[in-house]
Each structure stands twice: as structure tokens, then as C-alpha cells.
Amino acid sequence: xxxxxxxxxxxxxxxxxxxxxxxxxxxxxxxxxxxxxxxxxxxxxxxxxxxxxxxxxxxxxxxxxxxxxxxxxxxxxxxxxxxxxxxxxxxxxxxxxxxxxxxxxxxxxxxxxxxxxxxxxxxxxxxxxxxxxxxxxxxxxxxxxxxxxxxxxxxxxxxxxxxxxxxxxxxxxxxxxxxxxxxxxxxxxxxxxxxxxxxxxxxxxxxxxxxxxxxxxxxxxxxxxxxxxxxxxxxxxxxxxxxxxxxxxxxxxxxxxxxxxxxxxxxxxxxxxxxxxxxxxxxxxxxxxxxxxxxxxxxxxxxxxxxxxxxxxxxxxxxxxxxxxxxxxxxxxxxxxxxxxxxxxxxxxxxxxxxxxxxxxxxxxxxxxxxxxxxxxxxxxxxxxxxxxxxxxxxxxxxxxxxxxxxxxxxxxxxxxxxxxxxxxxx
RNA sequence: AGAGAGGUGGCCGAGUGGUCGAAGGCGCACGCUUGGAAAGCGUGUAUUCCGAUUGCAUCGGAAUCGAGGGUUCGAAUCCCUUCCUCUCUGCCA
Length: 427
Description:
Elements: H1 4-9, H2 11-18, H3 26-65, H4 69-105, E1 125-129, H5 143-149, E2 153-154, H6 155-161, E3 168-169, H7 171-190, E4 194-196, E5 201-203, H8 204-209, E6 222-223, E7 228-230, H9 235-240, E8 245-248, E9 254-263, E10 282-292, H10 297-314, E11 319-323, E12 335-343, E13 348-359, H11 361-366, E14 368-371, E15 377-379, E16 381-389, H12 390-400, E17 406-408, H13 411-417, E18 421-423
Parallel strand pairs: 4-9, 8-14
Antiparallel strand pairs: 1-11, 2-3, 5-7, 6-7, 9-10, 10-16, 11-12, 12-13, 13-16, 14-15, 17-18
This protein binds one RNA strand of 93 nucleotides through helix 3 and helix 4.
């Protein structure tokens, strides 16, 4: 979230830039400013009363020692009456603070100046296109048809076990998926990211710190008995490793990667684009996260974009990169680039990666800071991206790399699977 | 799940009612020492908020010893609630 100090100093700028999201935050910001003002005036009063009490308290033991009991009793009486007023004031102070916090939590991150105007996904700006739209095979089948026919994915069994959105991968396709995970992880490790194997259940605090709570409360699976949440992305545990941290300049940058399953309830998204692997409740993803000094975060973002591009190129899939417009930007992100792969049989683009700079928005909740050479304290910047999410990659591979007899595995991946094609049984 | 122990500053660790924001050590920073380094010596070293002055330097104040509440003129220290960790037992992949 934004700091009050920042809001105080940049009120107009924030109001202006939130318009890119289609939001009018003027009223909220003024609420925040007035709550902040009253908070400070309450604190001022409280502090001075407390100071008075404290100064008397330090006299009392001295008076008692020197036998001046009457004087001591006098001070005690004065203090106990003062104390009553502090009780009320501190209650007011706390309530004020709570209100202030609720407003603060509600303000999304400020869109970066580079974020294009626009209200819907149609206004996202294409900044890169790999250029090679594949020749579509005459009878190219969408992945759900082909994979079902060849018994590579069992959607019905998934429904039997869990419900819609929990596919079962079979045989070579399961192997291909495993190979891809290793391929992605190795690519990330080679690029300097350290691998972590993480819990996929996290507590409330972790969910809050990266911004999933309370914003996406309804989108996460919640285990009430233990008050734990199934992670919607490994961004959550990965980034929270550095919650409540003070880093040294020499520790930076921090580059991490992790493979985890991800869980999303996808409440409210039924009916649209949910066929096959397009939208799932459980899927596998390899994530990259970086923690950077503020002045380096833009460069880091560019590096991440280049990195994901490289992986997609190795996969030989046609793809494009979009700069998200304000209306399509996530709550916590300052700027986001989406990677979409072209699915020939579906004749549409599917999002396979999303790379974002959160600047200090998450750090403020995480309390993730560093100390510079002059011993001044600053919030760090966090960034993350998928490298990559599995199901849609699989879907595109199935749709783009099929011929009449087999599915062809790209070279770079074949090293990991141990086979370079999946033969179809004729039927 | 049951029983017990415990949660103190970047880390370890002392501290059971009164200058305790907290001894000591480690670490870190700067300085001295040295041909250089280590060792040694010296100095400094928590965070947040409010205020003054305004250079993110300095000064004053408040709060914080897991969290919340209570007792008291006064609590890290006593009481209650709660969360978490560890050990043993039970159970088990």
C-alpha cells in the first residue's frame, strides 16, 4: 500500500494517475488526509499528557526515599486523574488509526507513467510480436479435443476426483509437463535466480503482505480450520520470505525462482474461455521474483521481459508482449507486461506470463527495507513474473505442434522429456 | 490431540515492579595501531510516530521486550486472553 507520507506529499499526482485505472480516489484521499490530520493532533495531546505523567513518575521514588510521603501522595493523585484522560484519547487514537488503515488498504498502486490509458484489455498496447504466426493445419484440433481423443488429458476423471478445472494429465503429456517444469527452472537458475521449494499453504499475514488479501479474498481457497490459504501463485510464499526484513545494500539484488502448483477459485469467471486448459482451479507454474533497489527496478523489469522472451523463443511458440493499460492493471502492480502465445487451433492469444513491477507497494506491507550508505532507510522494490505458467503452454504446444500422426516436441524441451514427439494412436 | 518449556534489540543472551530501550557477548560501522592484514584498543550501533528547526543533519517528546487487555502512581518483570515456537507422549505419510 501507499504510505501516508507519500499521499500527503503527492495528493494531486495520485488522483490524476489513478484515473488511468478508471478510478476517482479524490474523496478517499481527502478522507485519508483528514484522518491523518486528526490522528496527529490526538497524538500530540496524548504525548504531552504522557510526558507529564512520566516526569512525575520519575520523581515519586525519590520523594519516597527522602521521606516526603505527603508530596509523593500528591503527585500520585494528580497522575491518576490525568491517566483517565489518556485512556479515552488512546482509544480515539486507535480507532482513528484503524479507519485510516482501512482507507489505505483500499487504494491500489499508482500506475507507472508509462502505463497506457484505457479501460479494458482491448486498450493494451502490443510492444513486441515474434512475427511467426504458424501455418494452421487443415484439421488442427483444439487441445481439449485432441488430448481427450489421445488419452493425454482426462477431463472427466478430473471432474470425478475434484470438479471442473482439475484436469488429469496422462502418460507422455504428464512427462512433458514435468520436463517443462525442469526446463523452466533450469533456465531461471542459469539466469541467476535461486530455486526455492515452498509451502503452498500460507497464513493470513502472508496473503496480506503481497496484496492478495483483502483484495482477492474470494479468489483463494481458504482452509478455515487452520486459517490457511492455498496459494494462487508462488509469488506469495516467495516474496514473503523477505517479509519484515532489513537488507544490506550488498545483499541486493535478490533473485528467486520456484515451481509450485497454484490454486484459484476463479469465482465469477464461469462460462467464458474456460474450455480445456484455458482456465483452471489448479495449475502448475514456475515463478521468478526479484527484490531491487528502487533505482534498479526498471532495469530489472526489462531484464525479466527479455528473459521470458528468450524462453518462449526456445519453445518455438509464436508470442506477443502487451503493455497493460490502466484499466487492466492489477491492484498492486505499478506496471505489467503480459506475454501471450498464439493458439492456432483456437485462433486466439492465450496469456502465459505476466511480468510486473510493484515498486514499493508490496514492500510497504511486507516491511521490506534496506539501509543505504548514509544509513538512510528506504523501502525496496519487488517484481515478479511467470517463467512460465504450464497449462496454456501445453495447450498451445498441442495445438501448434500437431501433425496428422504426432505431436512434435521442440528441441530445447526434448532434452528434458527424453522423447521428441508423442505419437498418436489412430482411431 | 495431551503434558511441559519458552517467545527480549541484526543475532545470541541477562534481566521478576521504579532513571530498563533494556547488562554482556557476537556482528556491523568509523577511528587508532600495522608495510598490509589479523589480533588488539577506542567510539558508535533498534524501530515507528509526533513536534521544533528545517539539509532525509541535529534536538525534544511518545510508544514498542510475540499480540491484546488488566492490576499499579509506575511493568520486559504480576494477572487474564490469544497467537506462535520448541521438547516429550500419542498418531502417522
